[in-house]
Design a protein that fits this description.
about 500 residues, 6-stranded parallel β-sheet, 4-stranded mixed β-sheet, elongated, alpha/beta
Length: about 500
């Protein structure tokens, strides 16, 4: 098994990446502006929906039910997809999925008599998860991203920084420079119409010339064997209808039981993702139709660590995600650092719980701590994923793993926590420790705040204000005030 999520295994920890990105003022301005716009639009569109909470509850129920009966619905999807003329392939991990895709592309290229195969791609975050582009290029196959944001990321040899808007960290001036460098243009305006016009002209040529397409999917419908892609530009529809051969890569959690279930998700997804009432393009296709669209249709159903997540109720809920990105736009941590700080194609709060779970907690161990636990992500999640509780659950797993090693047991954090637990159980020792801390804090106190604490405690003062301990604790005040009134008992602090 070669379960992996993009280049996560090669990336530094979140604190290191975040520290670097916090110095990039331009990216921070771009991220803050884009997320502000999307957040405001989402709030308006959600307010229009009197049954919004009912829709969220329904979506949560559908996804929960589906995951509990996932083998049944996957097999139903396979039967109906094959009956409609499609072909279904099962991939346990990234390498297996890439091997299947490369084999299918080579066969299609032979039929098309193409010596140097090319593929057009759209809506394929799952292909980023398995590193498909690098695998294709190693085999001499050229992938062309056709989603506008993905195309910008590819041209810049960059990585996506947002689940829905992968090039959110770029402003239009930076996009213009990329287009000039990669499209062979000598002149190009800076207005949005200029940029989209250039992209349209550039991509139309690819759509007409390349005979093999690769797509992702938002939903796979078990009842009909259909696949659904929702998007805003129409490039997805071009990509899934123009090529002779279409390969669709889907994570196994994307299956839903019935066609009618789309009604719920197609109301929730656009409002949560971009603040739109509905997606401009909803493409749903079932198998193949003679003389209409692709004449060969393959679906690759990808596991890549998902089955392992199914074993735990708390972790399984992460698979409810419909990739709307609403949690990213609300997260105060994401809005300050941007998506690249997460070191994964899945950024923000959902990435902080998805990436380490797919990787089996071996990598991305810092991500569950990349959150203030404010709960804003849970409030906006259209399928009610309790991200804060999952973050705490994963932190607990990391601590438990560390406690199984001698170095973990003897670490500063472990020893500090044990000492704190002991003090909390013994009030008199706790009060003595408070008095000792008040005496010692004078070395680090400035204007009522503690600065430059040493050792492990440095994390509390490096990026935030930590108020100094007061001259009198609540317990001391309570004892003194009750003694002054002569009631003879403090009521607290007695062992």
């Amino acid at each position: 098994m070669s379960v992996r999520v993009g280049h996560t295994a090669e990336k530094p920890a979140f604190p290191i990446l975040a520290h670097e990105l916090l110095q990039d003022d331009q990216t921070r301005r771009n991220v803050r502006h884009a997320t502000n716009v999307i957040r405001n639009k989402r709030a308006l569109r959600v307010e229009e929906m009197p049954d919004w909470q009912d829709l969220r509850t329904s979506a949560h129920a559908i996804k929960t039910h589906t995951l509990l009966h996932l083998p049944h619905y996957l097999e139903e999807f396979e039967r109906n997809c094959i009956r409609a003329g499609g072909q279904v392939h099962w991939a346990r991990d990234a390498d297996e999925a890439n091997t299947i895709a490369i084999r299918l592309i080579r066969k299609a290229a032979e039929r098309l008599a193409v010596e140097h195969p090319e593929v057009i791609k759209v809506k394929t975050m799952t292909s980023d998860e398995i590193g498909m582009n690098r695998a294709l290029e190693r085999e001499g196959i050229t992938p062309w991203e056709t989603d506008l944001a993905d195309m910008i990321v590819q041209m810049g040899k960059d990585e996506p920084s947002h689940i829905v808007v992968p090039a959110l960290h770029k402003n239009r001036h930076q996009v213009r420079e990329l287009f000039l460098q990669n499209m062979g243009l000598t002149e190009l305006g800076t207005e949005a119409e200029d940029l989209t016009g250039a992209a349209r002209h550039y991509l139309r040529k690819k759509f007409l010339e390349v005979g093999i397409g690769i797509s992702g999917a938002n939903f796979a419908i078990a009842e009909t064997g259909s696949v659904c892609v929702v998007e805003s530009e129409g490039n997805g529809r071009m990509c899934v209808t123009m090529p002779k051969t279409l390969i669709t890569l889907i994570g196994i959690e994307k299956v839903i039981p019935k066609f009618d279930d789309l009604e719920v998700f197609l109301q929730l997804l656009p409002r949560s993702a971009t603040g739109e009432r509905m997606n401009p393009y909803n493409s749903i296709w079932t198998g193949v139709t003679p003389a209409d669209g692709p004449q060969e249709f393959h679906v690759i159903l990808l596991d890549n660590g998902r089955t392992r997540m199914m074993a735990n109720v708390r972790e399984r809920e992460t698979l409810n995600c419909i990739r709307c990105g609403a949690c990213l736009n609300q997260c105060p941590v994401y809005r300050e650092t941007g998506g690249h700080a997460y070191g994964s194609i899945y950024s923000g709060p959902i990435g902080a719980i998805l990436s380490p779970q797919l990787n089996g907690m071996k990598y991305s161990r810092s991500l569950p701590y990349a959150s203030s636990l404010c709960g804003a992500c849970y409030e906006v999640c259209p399928v009610k994923i309790n991200i804060p509780e999952t973050l705490i659950h994963l932190r607990g797993k990391i601590v438990a793993q560390d406690q199984n090693t001698l170095s973990g047991k003897l670490s500063q954090e472990s020893m500090g926590m044990k000492m704190a637990a002991h003090l909390f159980e013994h009030p008199k020792q706790y009060e003595a420790a408070q008095r000792l801390a008040r005496t010692g804090q004078g070395l680090f106190e400035k204007d009522g705040k503690l600065v430059n604490l040493p050792g492990m405690a440095a994390g509390w003062t490096q990026y935030r204000d930590l108020r100094a301990l007061p001259k009198q604790s609540f317990r001391e005040w309570w004892k003194r005030s009750h003694t002054d009134r002569g009631d003879g008992s403090s009521g607290v602090g007695d062992e």
